[in-house]
Amino acid sequence: KNFSRMDSMTKRKQNSLFITLDDLVSEDHPYRKLDALLSFDELANPFLDIYSAKGRKEKGVSFGLRTLVLQFIEDISDREMERFLRENNSAKWFCELGLTEKTPDHSYFGDFRKRLGTKNIMAVFQRVRESLKAMGLIREVFTFVDASHLISKLTTWDDRDRSIKAGLEKFNNDTAEKIAVDPQARFGCKGGNKFWYGYKEHASVDMQSGLINKIAATSAEVTDASGLTHVCPNGGAVFGDKGYCVNPAKSTLKRNGCHDATIKKANMKGKDTEKDRWISKMRSPYERVFAHRNRRVRYRGLEKVQFQVGIRALTFNLKRMIILGFNNINLVPA
Questions:
Q1: Which of 28, 54, 61, 193 has the most other CB atoms within 10 Å of its CB?
Q2: What is the DSSP letter of 49?
């Protein structure tokens, strides 16, 4: 019996030596679906030159894109991402790390974002968007447009003190460029009584699939009507709130050949309450999608905020594709 027991223990030890990282990730884990959905190697190919072939060996662009997507899906900081990747076996599997392989420290993620840059991350978003259009998932027949506030890191009291010290009467949009820690952020206002300091995210969503079609960031003082020019679809009906029933939004819609399905203000000529109630009903499912998103900006400067909204829109579309039950995005050529 003792020999039999020892033989059994030896077998268990031997079997444990052959456990791989793949064995530790369940077959129905969301990261497996995400991995199958998109070819990160193919997506990374146009940007391989951001790392030099000489010098120390780097992890590569595909690895960087995987960590970037994972970081924004989980909505965690660089330091939290370092720990998450070190301690979470599913994250290691998704990023194609070995079970005992050393993970990068937090400085890697900031360095990768800097190397990739806003222009390239928007090119990634655009390529995935064009692929979704080719699959018939973004058709621009009915489009929901909206803008939401993004709050900058709160240094406004320090900025105000510097403004007073500099002999300026107020800290406002006229003096922010000279005084503020983030000189490109501005004060925004919505509804006459809701103020914030930072930026604004403008988005258009295809109402057939719920996928983000276009995305842009501006400073906070830019009106919804002015921001529409960045995200307006090319044709179809555009559903928007009262912020889009005035110029320059009306001119943008006309120029792009779109049907105006925006809600009119109460004092406007041709106000149709029943029609506006129907428009509100059509818009409501998409308003809820953005209602619970994190409103804080991670970075300072408009270009970096554009990077943030770009990668966040990309991850939103990837998660949406999984919810819709799609297993693969056929990438169009770069």
A1: 61
A2: G
